[in-house]
Amino acid sequence: MANSINDNYSINELLVNKNYTNPEHLYIHIPFCKKRCPYCSFYSTIYDNNDNTKDLFISALLKEIKLKDFLIAKNIRTIYLGGGTPSLLTSKDLEQIFNVVLKNHTLDDDIEITIEANPDDITKDLVSEWKNLGINRVSLGVENILEKHLKFLGREHTASNIRNAINIISKQGINNLSVDFIIGLPDETIDDLKENFKLLINNDIPHFSTYLLTIEEKTRLAKLIKNNPKLMLDDDKIINNTLQWYQWASENGYHHYEISNFSLPNYKSKHNLAYWIQKNYIGFGPSAHSYINPVRFWNVTSLKKYLIGLENNSLEYDYEIINKNEAYNEYVMTRLRLKEGIYFDDLKNKFGPKRAQYFANQACKISQKYLHKDQNRYYLTERGWLIMDKILVELFII
Ligand code: SF4
Prior knowledge:
Helices cover about 40% and strands about 20% of the residues. The model has no long low-confidence stretch (mean pLDDT about 95).
């Protein structure tokens, strides 16, 4: 469904009488990459330094922020620049974005401002400019330290770029650094994983995310695997390797606080936690999602349509209104991603005694090896996380 926000009322009408809370968490999607990686399903277009598309995008983005300004909370707690590749923006681009956001809003004293970055974009000047702009967290797309795996993933950066980037970020004084890994890659051995883990230990990295390689539909990797299914590791090996990875994390003081995320004390991602505990958030840029309970809405997934729309002060978006059963399913899914899990009383307060009883009955059918019950609290074990999809089928209300 295509709607227009040029009068702001179309979103307002959806929210009217909903007694909603204005989002304190902002996501800004930067839809450019130097090259598309074969496994990636995030929305982005190829960045061309020689045309003015990026400038047109920045102008459109500033307009979108102004159009939706009335939805943003007075006090902002987190800002996340994701993509795509936000490290392709200049500090002038970023300054313009922050100036528009801050016109009518203040930043919380504990504000977390994260930027996603590719290791080969990192320079001393760039990081120093980020710091001056108030960016205090970097999420670095390392993916893997081994050249053979970087090549398989189609990444441009090298192990030396990665080490250099980590060094620069820490020397410039941004201590809150997260690195992303992709594991479960063809031919991956325990020794390969150990090399990756050493990167964390040798550089005192306080936070990391680990994603198992997944084959997303319509990606180049999906085609490659379809033609060579034997390329993928078998399930037993993936489970074995992944459990070893988890064990190293625990032995080295990392708290596995979310299915894919690990942190040293006080370094959990505040922005992502807001998603996992169903806080309202607002997204800007093509394909960006927003959630203002009970409405989820998302921008058109096309830079071209986004630019044309905002040129005419309108923006194509779609939305859904989440009903109580859907909200229960989302709550169960996102809360069980967290080690904290689900507190039965909280579930009952939010969704009523019938749904809570349904949850308890279904949970009883799942082995404690996967879903643990500790007095009033239910949480998945690390083995449970490895089969989370199957567990959710049992717990969802269909
Ligand atoms: S993985 Fe990152 S750099 Fe690669 S295409 Fe996706 S968003 Fe772009």
